[in-house]
Amino acid sequence: MSDQPVSVIPFLHALASTGGSDLHCKVGSAPRIRVDGRLRKLQVPPLTPADTRNMVAQVLPEDLVAQFRDTHEADFAFSLSGVGRFRVNAYVARGTDCLVFRRVAVGATPMEDLGLPAVIADLALEPRGLVLVTGPTGSGKTTTLASMIDLINTYREVNIITIEDPIEVLHSDKKAIISQREVRSDTLDFTNALRGAMRQDPDVIMVGEMRDIETVRAALSAAETGHLVLATLHTVDAQDTINRIIDFFTPHEQSQVRATLSQTLRGIISQRLVRRGDGSGRTLAAEVMVNHGRIAEAIVDPSSQPPIADLIAEGDYYKMQTFDQHLFQLVQEQMVSVDDAVAIATRPHDLLVSLRNAGVIV
Question: Which family does the UniProt entry place this protein in (predicted)?
Fold first, then answer.
C-alpha cells in the first residue's frame, strides 16, 4: 500500500454500482458495503488512521469541522457528481475517525413497488391528522415516507413542507409544491422549522424524526389545527409508539396528551425488513394500526379496552394487521421462509402454531 492516504471516492462509486445502501469505513478493516441487509467486504487493503482522516477531510463541511473536533460526531449530506447524494455520519472510535455513508435516492419509489399494504395509501391521502411511520434504524421508514409524499404530490394540489436531517430523497413538484428543508443547512432544528412551517401556509408537513418533547408538541399542535403531519419514531410497534409519545410529557400533562392523540392520530405504520425466500433482497413486514372508536378509547384509557395489539389483530374491517399476520401472509405466499419469519415475529410460537393450523407447514 502506498504512503498516500486513499480516497473515499472509489468506494462511493462501488456503493452506487452495486446497488448497496450503506458504506462503512473504519480503521483496521477494508471498507464494507451493505447489500440486501448484509455487509460485504471490498477487495482492498484495510484502512489506516491516515486513510479515514483523509476521508473525513474530503467530505466534512467546513462549518462542521469545529463541531467534529469538539464532539467527535457529525451528521451531514455529501453529493458526488455523476454518482449521487449521501447521508454521512462521521464519528470517532478508539481515537480514530470512522464514517458511514447512506445512499440517498433521487425520486421516491412508487408505493406498489415497495410491497406496502394498500391502507397506507389511504393514510397518506388523509386531509389532516397525524400519521406515524416507526421501526428500528434501517427498516425503510424514510423510503415509506418518501412514497407517501410522492403519492400526495401525484394526486393533491397542496403545499408540502418537509423537515429532514439530512434530506434523503429528492422530490420534484407535480400537482403539489414541495419545499424540502434540511436541518442545519436550511433551519436550526426540527422545532424551529416546525414553528416556521406554520407560517408557510402548509397543507402537509413531514418531520424526519420526532426526537424531543418540543418537536412532538409542535407536531401534535399542527395535526390538531388541520394539517396532515407525517413523522417517524424509533419504536417497535403501535403500542410502543403511543407509550413513547405520552412518556415525552410530564405526568400532569399525560391525560391531555392522550385525549389529543386519540383525536389527531390517524394511523401508525411499524416496519421490519425480512429476507426474501429466493435470496433476491428483503421485503417489508408491517404492522398497521388505523385509529377508530375502540383504538381511540384505548389511547385515552388503556384499561377500558383490550390491548391495542389485540384490537389491531381483530381490525380486518379497518384494514389493520399485526406483524405476525403479515408474516403469515408472506410465508403463505412463499415470499419469505418460515425460519426468517419466525426470527422477526412478535410472537414466534403463536406464528408457528397458526402456520401449522392452516396447513402451511407440517
Answer: Belongs to the GSP E family.
